[in-house]
Amino acid sequence: MNENAMKMAQAMVQLELKDDSPKVPRKTVCGKVQEKLGTFSHPEGNLQTDCPSHDSICSNCGCSNANCQDMRRRTRSLNAPSPIQQFGPCGRIMKNSAMVMTIQDPASQRLTWYKPPLTVLVIKKVRDVSVLQPFVKLVKWLIQEKSMLVYVEQSVMDDTLLATNPSFTVVKDKLMTFRDGKDDLTDKIDFIICLGGDGTLLYASLLFQQSVPPVMAFHLGSLGFLTPFEFENFEDQVTNVLEGHAALTLRSRLRCIIMRKNEETAKDAKPPTNILVLNEVVIDRGPSPYLSNIDLYLDGKLITSVQGDGLIVSTPTGSTAYAVAAGASMIHPSVPAIMVTPICPHSLSFRPIVVPAGVELKISVSPDSRNTAWVSFDGRNRQELLHGDSLRVTTSIYPVPSICAQDQIADWFDSLGECLHWNVRKRQKHLDELSDLTHSSSNDTLDSLEHTDQIDS
After folding, report:
1. What is the pLDDT of residue 51?
2. Which among 19, 183, 187, 198 is annotated as catalytic?
3. A Gene Ontology molecular-function term (predicted)?
4. How far apart are CA 167 and CA 287, in angstroms?
5. Does 4 or 183 have the greater pLDDT score?
6. Is 180 a residue of the active site?
7. Fold for the domain defined by 254-397
């Protein structure tokens, strides 16, 4: 690497991408992600070459000593290693402003509060008696021990079982309430606690269609893939989070916009439907007996026409929901990607695909389709897509900061094992335990076994 290339690499570290695109906000009311930029290096240290013009530079200390310990040590990062940008004696990546960027390592994302959180939203699972007692204990503890202002949904206050609970009546008058769809919680909530299953986290995502406060989810539901915390010692766990001792998983969301044919050109048209989803947006044939015939565009280019029951466009978080039931792969939530999964396609070769998180997908009903299509967002707000309408989908700049019980890797694989029983099967027996193979070993060949049989006969 020559002197000019070294200067450029140092400048890239210090500069940020200068463009007009919106930046991802790192904070809500009180919480933000601790900024600790990961160092990108090759898994075995920087690549070594014998050519003197391609000297290797240590990414940690800046030296060119081949025996440097930092050069041989693998940098622990959830990001892929930064690729070498010079290929052979003459080839290299063309310089442009898009090369200058700063990417934070997901493994280093930890919650920090730049001022103490004062307001907390508690979301509990509805129509579940088993959640009532934990809900009362948590709310009472937050008010009396932590002196926090607690928000709950108005429907919670109308619960007749809670109204007769003596412990709840003590704190009932101290609770703040809101109504979904009527009251705006933006900039009012510092912290969210969910009690129930995955649906409570999806509901929290629905309530905050822009910046989302940090979410701590307790497993009190049926499946609980997204709820890593157990409620038994909730006091210690919540205290640790309020003190800033927690890892974060930034779960990306999809920004979905429905463009109506008759509204694109009308001057007095209503603003288009704009919804953020945490799991997936589903386009299907609805009540029609005919196949869905849907055109799929990627960054303006027609990719394919989907003929089948429908299409699932999901986030990495949603890859373990409807998408995995339709045959998709499971993607770790820290992977920046969008998954496209057909539902019962009328083609055996139509497999699920993963595309970069930055692309824009456009989905519309094919002009020659026999029927319309229906779209739903995280299982809600079901609407009909008519001929000429289109759905635009891309990754939102507003993720859901989900608090980890352990870390991003351990939580995800624990959920795979406990909730989905991933790769669970009985262990294969040892050869010594099989009576019909006691006279053979792994080193036996067919010729030796036949020779043994001839001697025995």
Report:
1. 38
2. 198
3. NAD+ kinase activity
4. 48
5. 183
6. no
7. Tumour Suppressor Smad4 (2.60.200)
